[in-house]
Write a sequence for this structure.
């Protein structure tokens, strides 16, 4: 190899590492990647939060654009998010809103919905707790956008507001409508 | 040290231990091997909510859910590999504090060893080439030799 060229090897290595680290700087370490985006919604059968409505399974929702929201009345950020969903269910009637609540606060959750309004088309309880693990949920609130074929397109951790909805969810919705 | 201060110290030290074992104490196992597996798995998996702690040391509700899940699976006799596969298919490789060997993590695993070997090779080559340079004999022409001894002679004066 040319001796002159050899001198540039350290520079090349430096540039490679600098590029690598620069790329690392652009990534937000607090964003937990979802293993389920692009994969089908896991199978489930779960009872309704309300005793008289029986139970629901994945097949009941195929053919709908589905928004699954994991929440609990004990979760304060969920209280913040709640008015947004009340508005959303008015503005976007073609989206099925599925509220999935934890199994440790059913009475409080019912009370919460009665007092503050129920934005969800279906209210389900994760009895046994395994559906939230199957979904790779990290906590509440968390929201999954599912297309008509039951594929998970996007998972959002934390509160959704109008800005997040318009910037992140709307472009995805336009693709699948 | 008085008796009271001794017992106070003991209490203080105990309070340091409690949070570590608190998470495990609520589970009972049939064998020590099962308990070891449970400990190993919850220590080597990351809490998805709190990012910088493992499942064993986290108070997040999801960490408790996942500890229960691991406990049940250990009790059902599923292997560590099966449990790790179960978790990473739901939470991604993100949940594993001990990264798996894939194309993306190749440099993570072997980078330090590669750099070490490369360093040895470079140092060796530099040493060999500098030795080779020292070893080459240079012959002086008669004029040069004369000049050299003149210079050396001048210095000695």
């Amino acid at each position: 190899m040319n001796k002159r060229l050899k001198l540039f090897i350290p520079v090349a290595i430096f540039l490679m590492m600098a590029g690598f680290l620069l790329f690392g700087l652009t990534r937000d370490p607090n964003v937990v990647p979802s293993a389920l985006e692009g994969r089908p919604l896991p199978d489930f059968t779960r009872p309704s939060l309300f005793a008289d409505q029986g139970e629901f399974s994945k097949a009941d929702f195929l053919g709908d654009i589905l928004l699954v929201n994991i929440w609990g009345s004990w979760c304060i950020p969920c209280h913040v998010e709640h008015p947004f969903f009340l508005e959303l269910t008015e503005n976007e009637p073609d989206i099925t809103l599925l509220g999935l609540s934890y199994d440790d606060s059913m009475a409080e959750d019912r009370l919460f919905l009665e007092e503050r309004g129920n934005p969800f088309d279906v209210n389900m309880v994760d009895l046994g707790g395994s559906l939230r693990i199957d979904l790779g949920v990290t906590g509440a609130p968390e929201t999954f956008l599912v297309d008509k074929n039951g594929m998970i397109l996007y998972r959002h951790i934390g509160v959704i507001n109008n800005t997040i909805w318009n910037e992140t969810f709307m472009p995805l919705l336009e693709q699948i409508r | 040290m008085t008796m009271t201060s001794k017992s106070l110290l003991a209490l203080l030290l105990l309070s340091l231990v409690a949070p570590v074992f608190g998470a495990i104490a609520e589970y009972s196992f049939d064998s020590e091997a099962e308990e070891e597996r449970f400990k190993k798995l919850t220590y080597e998996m990351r809490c998805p909510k709190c990012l910088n702690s493992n499942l064993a040391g986290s108070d997040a509700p999801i960490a408790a859910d996942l500890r229960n899940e691991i406990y049940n699976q250990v009790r059902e006799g599923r292997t560590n590999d099966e449990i790790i596969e179960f978790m990473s298919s739901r939470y991604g490789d993100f949940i594993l504090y001990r990264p798996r060997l894939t194309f993306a993590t190749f440099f993570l695993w072997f980078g330090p060893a590669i750099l070490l070997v490369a360093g040895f090779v470079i140092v060796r080559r530099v040493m060999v080439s500098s030795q080779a340079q020292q070893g080459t004999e240079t012959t002086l022409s008669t004029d040069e030799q004369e000049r050299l001894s003149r210079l050396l002679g001048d210095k000695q004066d």
Notes: The interface with chain B takes residues 29-30, 32-36, 102, 129-130, 132-139 of chain A (CB under 8 Å). Helices of chain A lie at 3-6, 9-25, 76-91, 106-116, 130-134, 162-176. Residues 85 and 119 of chain A are 6 Å apart (CA to CA).
